[in-house]
Design brief:
With 329 residues, this protein is mostly helical. It has one domain: Farnesyl Diphosphate Synthase, CATH 1.10.600. It has 14 helices and two strands; from the N terminus they run H-H-H-H-E-E-H-H-H-H-H-H-H-H-H-H. Helix 1 packs across helix 14, helix 3 crosses helix 7 and helix 6 runs antiparallel to helix 7. It starts with a helix and ends with a helix.
Length: 329
């Protein structure tokens, strides 16, 4: 299923701004009203914004499944943005990152102890928001997603030590780390209106979108222009084995493979060496291959929507997938 990305880009941006405004109001009430530095810092991180992809997906999935009350689903959108942001705060601690969304990260400003507490505070607010909904199905899928994200992070850390991650392991990692939460957002949109017949389709749709989304993020690390919120080459600096690099290592000559592994393992702080590594990944087809796989997942996600009746929500979801895959940040 194809759509005119440019024709719907403005309406998607309008919707994103609407979601952002609704979330900002909820953040003021639910988070920043809390006492203490941790609550105030959590509010600041959330108000810094981002793409708001997950809230947009849950809102559109809610509408696609027959929901008509956006106000009903906005607290859920906040809960999922809280989960996403809490994992970013904790990731920055694990990665010792100093920047997030163009600003200093929480751990850069307040050290790791406060950063961990900010992430924990957000997770506690998530539990309270879902308890207020009194919906066991929502609690179940959220618990599953948080568990999978933790497993994905641990698997990535474990496998990064050897630099021998296969494509299969890579997809296990990003399916858990990134795709599981996006998948849960889409499934929760169906749950929010009691549309049991749509739950599994929306879960699979979200999983494929999440996989494509993460691959696009991995591609950015190899020099795609635009403000992408993290320095080019950071994945190599952090010894993260992403799809472009994995493909290159599996398909380049032995001498290039040895050189790349040496750079990632022993010279990941050397800017000239990192530039050399990124050029090799480009030269030996890693970027082209990643784009190919990304589009396969995106097309598979859109094909799932073919089974739904035509609606503005369906058009917007197709456009959101296309827009996300063609983004430059």
């Amino acid at each position: 299923m194809r759509t005119d990305v440019a024709g719907l880009a403005d309406s998607l941006e309008d919707m994103r701004q609407e979601v952002d405004a609704g979330l900002s109001s909820l953040i003021q009430n639910e988070i920043k009203s809390g006492a203490g530095e941790v609550a105030r810092e959590a509010g600041q991180v959330l108000l810094a914004g981002g793409k708001r992809l997950r809230p947009l997906l849950i809102l559109l999935a809610h509408r696609l499944a027959g929901g008509t009350d956006d106000g009903e689903v906005m607290p859920l959108a906040l809960a999922f943005e809280l989960i996403h942001t809490a994992t970013l705060v904790h990731d920055d601690v694990v990665d010792d990152a100093n920047e997030r969304r163009g600003f200093f990260s929480v751990n850069a400003l307040w050290k790791n102890k406060i950063a961990v507490l900010v992430g924990d505070f957000m997770l506690s607010k998530i539990l309270l928001l879902f308890i207020e909904k009194e919906n066991i199905a929502l609690l179940e899928v959220v618990a599953r997603s948080v568990k999978e994200m933790s497993e994905g992070e641990l698997l990535q850390i474990e496998k990064a030590r050897s630099l021998d991650i296969t494509e299969d392991i890579y997809f296990q990692v990003i399916k858990k780390k990134t795709a599981s939460l996006i998948s849960t957002c889409c499934e929760a949109g169906a749950i929010s209106v009691g549309a049991e017949e749509y739950r599994e389709k929306m879960r699979i749709f979200g999983e494929k979108v999440g996989l494509a989304f993460q691959i696009k993020d991995d591609i950015f690390d190899y020099g795609t222009p635009g403000n992408i919120g993290k320095p080019t080459g950071i994945d190599i600096r952090e010894q993260k084995m992403t799809l472009p690099l994995i493909y290159t290592l599996e398909n380049c000559p032995p001498n290039i493979k040895a050189e790349l592994k040496n750079i990632v393992k022993n010279h990941n702080e050397n800017s000239a060496k990192i530039k050399r590594a990124t050029s090799l990944v480009l030269e030996y087809g890693g970027i082209d291959y990643a784009y190919k796989i990304m589009h396969e997942y995106a097309d598979a996600a859109k094909s799932i929507l073919d089974g739904f009746p035509d609606s503005q929500a369906k058009k917007s979801l197709v456009a959101l997938v296309d827009f996300t895959m063609n983004r430059d940040k």
